[in-house]
Structures are given as C-alpha cells and as structure tokens.
Design goal:
CATH topology: Aminopeptidase
Radius of gyration: 18 Å
CATH superfamily: Gcn5-related N-acetyltransferase (GNAT)
Strand content: 25-35%
Helix content: 25-40%
Distance between the termini: 43 Å
Strand order of the largest sheet: 1-2-3-4-5-6-8-7
Number of strands: 8
Length: 204
C-alpha cells in the first residue's frame, strides 16, 4: 500500500505524459523518461549535446568545436529531425537519445538512433540505459517505423554493447570512414534493429 501511494505521488508530480521507470537507478533516485518539448531545445537539447561531445569526444563523428559554433537555426533544424527522448532524475536531464528521420518519404520508414548520451553516474547502470533505448524504440513503433539504425565507431565499446543488448545486429561496416584529428582512420559500424518487416507491413 505504501509503495502504491508513493508511485501515485511520483506520477502526479511528473505528469502522466512521462514514463516512470520500474526501478530506481543504482544511486537510488527515481527516474522518468519523456519526449522533449520544442521549448527545451535550448535549455536541454543543446546543452546535453554539447556536453556529450565534450565528455566523449572519441565517440562521435562531429566535434564540440564545430557544434558549439552552431546558430539557433542549426539547432532547430537538428531538433526537428525527430523526437528526442530524455531521461530525467527528478527535474534534471541526465540522458537523451534522438530518433532522426529523413524528409524523403521513400526513406522515412527508417529512423536513426542518434546522439545517445547518459551522464557518467548513470551510464554504468545497464538497466537504466536499456530502458532509455527501449523507450525510444517504442516511440519509433508509434510512428510506424520499420527499421532503426545506430552508427558507432569501432572504438566505442560501451555503445556497441548497448546495441547488442537491445536487439541490434551489425548490418555493415564502413572501413576507415572516420578520420580523427590525429589523422588516423576508424571504422564506422552500422547496427540495425528491425521493428517490422516489409512482409509484415504488407500483411497488415
């Protein structure tokens, strides 16, 4: 009974649009997930994206210096490419991932899981990270998405482990696709998660 009352109190504070995780993080704080609003493009999306580029510079094909120079219209264009799923500890955003869609109607059945970032104190909690990924995949299903791809550099063992745990398989490899600031080349791995096959869509 006490647990039920606590659960109802949390939901009433967070709002019914948020998804309450069934578990607390390992640091003991209840976590929620929801899609960011357009008003949070600057206050959350931009700041989190710059933080991830600064804290994990070897995990992305872009750089902090490049995106820190973006104008508001650049951020708006990026934000509008698809829903951004945020992970919150109380009111603070501690993680996010975006579903990016093409404007080409022949390609928008595919989404790219883009810019996954989780604060260090939560990133080691596999269950929490996986919940965020599954929340994003559910958002993709709501949009009748058939496939979700995830691009990562071969050196990013953390993200590759996340992909494998959540049902992604290695679709192809772009050898030497990324050139680092040091002048060496790294392979870009493209993982894929099938939500609905073309045959299943036809039957539907």
């Amino acid at each position: 009974m006490k647990y039920l009352l606590r659960l109802l109190m949390i939901i009433s504070v967070c709002g019914m649009s948020e998804n309450l995780l069934a578990r607390k993080s390992t640091v003991g704080i209840p976590l929620t997930m929801r899609v960011l609003t357009s008003g949070e493009m600057k206050t959350i999306y931009k700041l989190m994206r710059l933080k991830e580029l600064h804290n994990r510079p070897d995990s992305y094909t872009s750089t902090f210096i490049r995106e820190n120079a973006f104008k508001t219209h650049n951020w708006r264009a990026r934000f509008n490419k698809g829903p951004v799923c945020g992970l919150f500890a109380k009111k603070a955003c501690v993680g996010m991932v975006q579903l990016k869609y093409s404007r080409n109607e022949r390609l928008n059945h595919i989404a790219e899981l883009y810019g996954l970032y989780v604060e260090a104190e939560y990133a080691h909690d596999k269950a929490v990270v996986d919940d965020l990924i599954q929340y994003a995949l559910e958002e993709a299903r709501k949009r009748a998405t058939e496939r979700v791809i995830l691009k990562l550099m071969r050196s990013d063992a953390w993200l590759e482990d996340v992909a494998k745990r959540n049902g992604f398989y290695l679709a192809w490899t772009q050898v030497g696709a990324v050139k680092t600031a040091q002048g060496d080349y790294r392979d870009l791995l493209v993982y894929e998660h099938v939500l609905r096959s073309a045959n299943a869509q036809a039957e539907y």
